[in-house]
Amino acid sequence: MPKPTSPKYRTTNWSAYNAALKQRGSLDIWFDPDMQWLSAPCGRPGRPARFSDSAIELCLTLKALFNLPLRQVTGLVASLLKLAELDWPVPDYTTLCRRQKTLPVTLGGRPSSGGLHLLVDSTGIKMMGSVPAEGEMTP
Questions:
Q1: Measured between alpha carbons, how far is 99 from 106 in angstroms, rounded to an integer?
Q2: What is the C-alpha separation between 103 and 39, in angstroms, rounded?
Q3: What is the pLDDT of residue 113?
Q4: Which of 20, 25, 69, 134 shows the smallest number of beta carbons within 10 Å?
């Protein structure tokens, strides 16, 4: 039995096709400057946690999204904070290693089209697959 011929697709609108390919690499990360990045004192004996659960969750989410080792995650977070012009300290990889054992990070379903938006605010991290309109933030 002969092998069926596969359909041939021809791209006629190269500018839209090129724009769609570039959009696949889109990543927007929004930081809320009022987010509690450092941990509040807990009142228990022993060394207090320096970074909040939200800060560690952001680092571990980026680790899972991009399949990065912890040392590379610290560099990525440092560069993102620098781009956002935030003067926040970055957790070192040993802190991330220790805290990832007790802080579960679930990514849920990844969007299949459009850009990926991470919103980091005082309530935690939200992933949005749809691209909001210019100047609009949708949950």
A1: 15
A2: 14
A3: 58
A4: 134
